[in-house]
Design goal:
The complex is a heterodimer of chains A (about 350) and B (about 120). By secondary structure, chain A is α+β, with helices and mostly antiparallel strands. Chain A has nine helices and twelve strands. In chain B, helix 1 crosses helix 2 and helix 1 packs parallel to helix 4. Classes of the chains: A alpha+beta (about 350), B mainly alpha (about 120). The interface between A and B is medium-sized, with 21 and 18 residues.
Chain lengths: ~350, ~120
């Protein structure tokens, strides 16, 4: 009776811990660290169908052979329930070894001897599967199955919450058409970079990008083709930037790129790369190929000394206007004759 | 089909309905109604190409029902009804094996085996 009560307490603590987390890695870590108190396991694994990620939390003594067997077995279970082909090469495996405090140390040859693998089901769809894996024969009984079922139901519930929060975050952060940052998140990111630039005396450049003759594309080919042009340009912009650069849809056919630690010269190189890439990559339409070009305006700290991020953006917009005036498909940068020179030492 | 064969079909269906209800009662305690419903529906989907009659099995979180099968088995021989339902139970056991090796099956053998034998005797009479 005392053992059953202790097990129920442990089960309750696992369910509470899972319930307290909304981020999937935390859910897995929490479960992995506590499950060995309840089950005679060497590893806990969870395979997600959506991104084909397999997380394995196992005892520090676990050998590679056991891990390989867990990988194969977890995949086999998912294949059983989905009927879709899947090989270990297609799966990204993350193994985390830790000391399983309550590991029941019976002699073992380090092979996978028994498992429970439950599919994670939400509204009739298979999200993945979760497994308990042991190096002992008949390590699990009916009560273990019952407890693990309760735990997986709680995991599914937490994953659903996690997905809702994540999609809400996405909706608030990204432009739904281009999947670039939207203007709200751009403002937040630029505010941080702008302050950082001034406080740490580091350069910062921005590039305002506008698609040339976009109205004519909409008029001639229709709004669907216009949308495809925006997605096409967004993809080329993402592909032309450095890892820490930020690109956002600023509105309509305008995009804004934030280049942390980039001086004017760096920004010009990047802007030219973007311009050439777009000019060289026409949009293959359903009816005919559409050749696109863009105009770009650059503003750079410390070449100028804006008092706010709004003024900084205005400078890039002025340079963009100049690029349009000079015939489009070109890069212009903002030079102020009135700004005082930047003081102090600028890094970068 | 003659009245005798039709009666055998109804007896067979009653027998399997009682067997599946026992399986439902025991297994839902272990893995919950939601997962069990999924496993049963998966088994129906995978087998109904071979045995069309299995399409009329109804499953929900409330349980499993063979009620519609009683009305739709007039033109099927008892051997075929038995083969379809026996195959269904066998495949359901495969699904249980996939998730728990022999944990569930061990719990069920004592219930299932006598009823499967009884079904075979009905056919051979």
């Amino acid at each position: 009776m005392r053992i059953i009560f202790k097990n129920l307490q442990t089960l309750w603590s696992i369910i509470n811990a899972i319930n307290a987390n909304v981020e999937l890695p935390n859910i897995i870590e929490t479960a992995g660290s506590k499950l060995s108190h309840l089950f005679n396991i060497v590893a806990f694994s969870i395979l997600l169908k959506e991104n084909l990620a397999l997380y394995i939390s196992c005892d520090e003594s676990t050998g590679q052979r056991f891990v390989d067997e867990v990988v194969r077995n977890t995949i086999k279970t998912l294949v059983f329930f989905t009927g879709e082909r899947l090989s270990p090469e297609q799966v990204r495996t993350h193994v985390e070894k830790r000391r399983f405090e309550s590991r029941w140390m019976e002699p073992s040859d380090g092979r996978l001897k028994s498992h429970i693998s439950l599919p994670l089901i939400n509204e009739g769809k298979v999200l993945g599967c979760a497994s308990l894996n042991s190096d002992q024969m008949n390590a699990f009984d009916a009560q273990a199955l019952q407890f693990f079922s309760l735990i997986t139901y709680q995991m599914i519930s937490s994953m659903k919450t996690s997905q809702v929060i994540s999609s809400m975050k996405d909706m608030a952060t990204f432009d739904p058409l281009t999947q670039l940052y939207n203007r709200t998140s751009l403002n937040q990111a630029l505010e941080i970079e702008f302050r950082n630039s001034l406080q740490n005396r580091q350069p910062l450049s921005i590039i305002m990008v506008d698609i040339d003759h976009f109205k004519a594309i909409n008029d001639q080919y229709g709004h669907d083709e216009g949308d495809r042009a925006l997605i096409h340009i967004a993809s080329l912009l993402k592909g032309s930037l450095r890892k820490h650069d930020i690109v956002a849809r600023f509105g309509g056919e305008e995009f804004l790129i934030v280049l942390p630690k980039a001086i004017m010269k760096d920004a010009v190189v990047i802007a030219e790369r973007i311009r050439k890439s777009i000019e060289a990559t026409p949009l293959s339409g359903s009816k005919e190929t559409v050749h696109l070009t863009v105009s770009l305006g650059i503003a750079s700290i410390p070449a100028i000394w804006p008092e706010s991020k709004e003024e900084f953006i205005k400078c890039a917009d002025t340079a963009l206007y100049e690029a349009k005036e000079k015939g489009r498909n070109r890069v212009c940068f903002y030079v102020s004759t009135t700004d005082p020179p930047a003081k102090g030492i600028w890094l970068g | 089909m003659g009245g005798k064969k039709a009666n055998v079909n109804l007896d067979l269906i009653d027998l399997y309905a009682s067997l599946l209800n026992e399986i439902w009662g025991r297994v839902s305690e272990l893995i919950g109604e939601g997962l069990l419903e999924f496993l049963i529906q998966l088994t129906i989907d995978r087998m109904s190409d071979r045995f069309l009659i299995l399409n009329v099995i109804r499953v929900s979180e409330a349980g499993i029902s063979l009620e519609s099968m009683r009305n739709q088995c007039q033109n099927i021989s008892p051997e075929d009804v038995h083969r379809a339902l026996q195959g269904f139970v066998k495949n359901l056991f495969n699904a249980f094996t996939a998730i728990s090796e022999n944990v569930i099956n061990r719990e069920l053998f004592s219930t299932v085996l006598p009823k499967l034998r009884e079904a075979e005797q009905m056919i051979s009479r």
